[in-house]
Amino acid sequence: MKPNSSKSWAILWLMLIPLLVSLGCQPQPSDQPQPSDQPQSSDQPQPTNQPPSSNEPESGNKTFDAEVVFGPGPFNLPETRVGLLDLSSYRATLILSFDGAQAGQPHQWSKTYVMLATKDPAARQLTIEKTGDLSDLAPVFMAEVEGALYERRGENSCLANATEAGSSLAERMEPALFLAGVIGADEAGSETVNGVAASHYNFDERALGQVDIAKSTGEIWVASKGGYIVKYVLTTTGIADYFGEGTAGTLTWDYQVTNENKPVTIELPEDCPPGMVTAPLLADSTNTQNMPGVLSFDTPSSLADAADFYQKQLPSLGWKLDNEPSITDTLALINFTQEDKTLAVIITTDAEVTTVRIVTGKVQP
Amino acid sequence: MDRKACRHKGLIEFASGRRKSMNSVSRWQYFLYALGLALVILSTGQTWPTQAAPAGKNVRFYMDVAYPKTTLCTGQTVTYTVHVYRQFTSPPPGWTDKNLPEPSAIQNVKVEAYPADKTIGFFHGPQKAGIVSDRTGFNFDGPDSVEFQFTAGKKPGKTNLYFEGAVTGYTIQTGYVSFTVPIRVIRCNYEVSTHSTWVLKSQYGTGFAFEFMKATLTADDLGYLTSSPDPGVLWVTVNQIPNTKSVIAVYGGKAKLNGQVDENGLLNLKINFNTASGEEANCNAAGCGGGAVAFTPPPLMLNFPEAGGTKRAAQVLDSPAGPLPGTTTVTVIPLEQKP
User: Fold this and answer.
1) Between β-strands B175-186 and B71-73, what pairing exists: parallel, antiparallel or unpaired?
2) How confident is the model at residue A74 (pLDDT cuts 50, 70, 90)?
C-alpha cells in the first residue's frame, strides 16, 4: 500500500502545484484592474490611466467602488458599440434633444450626429448640426481619410493633422459610444426595424444603474444578425438641477443605424489639404518628414537611382505613369495618377545629398 | 518513518482529529484530487478581476483625461476632455465573455478644474475661488464628456492641473473621483513648411511649377514671431511638351514670415514670397527660346491653432505664362525653444 499511497500523493501534488502557480498569477485582493484586465481593442477609448489601486493612490487620482443595483430583466448590453466594427460600412445617426427650462426660462436644443463609416478603405466622416439654445451653433465636420484627421468648424478653414493614437473618430466620437449601456432590460419580442430583423427590449433608469434623481424609459432594438444596436431610444426626465444648476427638463436620445454594408461616400470640403502620402521610402532615407500632402526625405543615393526606384515601385502599387518623366542631372519630375489622385515625385540633388519630395493632389478637371 | 509518512499522518489527523484507516485516506485523496482539479480548471479560466473590488461592490468609478497635453507653449490654449467612467469590477449578470465589459462614460457628473499654481495659467469660464466647473455631457460635442480650456501664461514653469468630480445617483451616496495632469509650460518656436503646386495644361503641353519652403519662427519678448534669417524657397518648373525634351529649371528664392498668437490662442501667420527670377528656356508652339522669367505668388495669410496642423489655400501664381491657379499647403509644428 505504501508505494500506491506515495504515487497517489505525487499525483495530488502534481495537481496542486499548477493550482498554486495559477493562483499566484491572479490579481491580489488589493490589486485593481490593470491594463491587461481592461478590454483590449484598439478601436475603443482606452483610459490613458487605469483605475488606480486604492481610493487614495500614489498618483493622487481618486476612484471609488460601489455596489450598483441594475434592472431586473434578463437582457444586458453593457457595450453599446458591439457588432458595429464587423459591418463593412454604416451610417449612424444620433439625435440628442432637450426640452425644459433653465433659470425659469424655456430651454430647448437639439444636436444631430451623423457618422459615416467604411472599412475598406478605412474612412469616417462625422457631422454635427445644432439648433436651439446652445452657446455654439457652428456646424462641425470631421473626417478621417488616408491617415489624416480633418476638422472644419463653422466657416473656419479645414484643418488637417496626421491621425494619432487616441485621436481617431472611432475612439472619440462614435455615436454608439455616447449611449448608456443597459443591464437588466426586459424582452419585448422580435421586430423588423430599419429593414433589419431585431430583438426588442424595454428598460428604465434601473438598467442604467441610476436611481432617485431622474426617471428614464428606453427601448433598444438589437440586430438578430450581427448583434449591433439598430435603434435606441431613451427619454430621461430630470428633477431640478439634474441637467446642471437651475436646469430641469427632458432629454431624448434617438439613435439609429442604417445603410449597413452599403456603399458610403465620404467627401471632404474643397479647401481641405490632401491626405498623408503613402509611398515606399528608399532604404537609406534620412530626415523623413510626412505631412498632409507631402512626404520628403534625403538620401545618399543618386538622383538616377531614386528616380529608377519610384518608376519601378509606384506602378506596382497601382499608380500609372502620367507623361514621360522629366529627368536631368539635377532634377527629376515623375508624375503618376491613380483614379482622381495625382502623385508628383520631385527629386533634386546637389553635391552631397539627394532630396525626394512626393506631393499628392487631385487630378484637375 | 519518512517525511512523507509524517506529512501523511499529519493531514489525516488535521482532517478528522483522529487517525483514519487507509480507506478513509483514499477517500480524502479522491476528494482532494477532485477539489484540486476543479480549482485548477476554474482558476485557469479566471480573468475577471473579481478580487479587485471589495465584497459586494460591483462597479468602480474613475476619472480620465483623454490623452492630456502635458507640454504647452507659453500663451497656448489647450482643451482637456474629461470623462468619468463606470467600470464593472465583477461580471454583470449573464456576462460570459472572459473580459469584463468595457468602461462606459457617464453623464451628469459635476467636474471642477483648477491649476495648483495660478501664475502658470488659467481655466476659461466663470470662476469661484479660481475653480471652474461644468458637467459631463450635453454642452460639448462629445455628450459623454466635459471639456475645459486652459490657457498657459506668458512665463514658463510647471504645475499640476486638478480635475475633481462628484458622482451621484448611482445607488450610492455621492462618491468622488479625480485626475491630475502635470504640465510644463515652455517657450516655443514654430516650424512652418509650405509646398505649392501649379499646373497648366494646354494644347502645347503641360507646365508645372512647384514651391517648397521650410522656416522657423521665433518669438521676441513681446510675443511677435518672425523668421530670421529669411528662409530659402525652392522653385521647380517643368514644361513637358509632346515630342520634345522637357524644359526644367530650378530656382532659389526667399520668403519672409511673421505672426502673432491672438487672444483666442490662434497663431495668425503671414507669408510673403519674394519674386523668384532666373533664366529659363521658354517654349511655345513655335519652339523654345531662352529668357528671363519671374514668379511672384501673392502673400498668404492663415491662422492655426497653436497646436499646429495643416491647411490649404488657393494661390494664383503670376508667371510668364500668365496667372496660374494652384494651391499652397502650409504645415505648422510647434517646437520647443532651445536654450
Assistant:
1) parallel
2) very high
Question: Coil, strand, or helix at residue A11?
Answer: helix
Q: Are B65 and A361 within 8 A, CB to CB?
A: no
Are the CB atoms for B254 and B232 separated by under 8 Å?
Answer: yes
* Confidence (pLDDT) at A9: 53
pLDDT band at B55 (very low <50, low <70, confident <90, very high): low
Q: Each residue of A287-345: pLDDT tens digit? A: 999 989 999 999 999 999 999 999 999 999 999 998 788 888 888 999 999 988 899 99
Q: Residue B65 half-sphere exposure, CB side, CA atoms within 13 Å?
A: 25
Residue B87 near residue A33 (C-beta atoms within 8 A): yes
Give phi and psi for A311, each to the nearest 5: -65, -25
Partner-chain contact A324 B210, CB within 8 Å: no
- Cell numbers 491647411 correspond to B311
**Are A364 and B199 within 8 A, CB to CB?**
yes
What is the average pLDDT across A137-157? 93
**Per the confidence metrics, is the pTM higher than 0.80?**
no
A:243-272 residues touching chain B, CB 8 A cutoff: 243-244, 251, 271-272
CA distance A193 to A196: 5
Q: Which three cell numbers stand for residue B62?
A: 474613475
Work out the angle at residue B316's Cα, subtended by the Cα atoms of residues B240 and B199, and round it to the nearest 5 degrees: 20
Cell matching residue A33: 484592474
What gap in Å lies between CA B136 and CA B108, rounded to an integer? 5
Q: What is the CA radius of gyration of chain A?
A: 28
- C-alpha to C-alpha distances, A346 to A298, A315, B211, nearest whole angstrom: 12, 16, 11
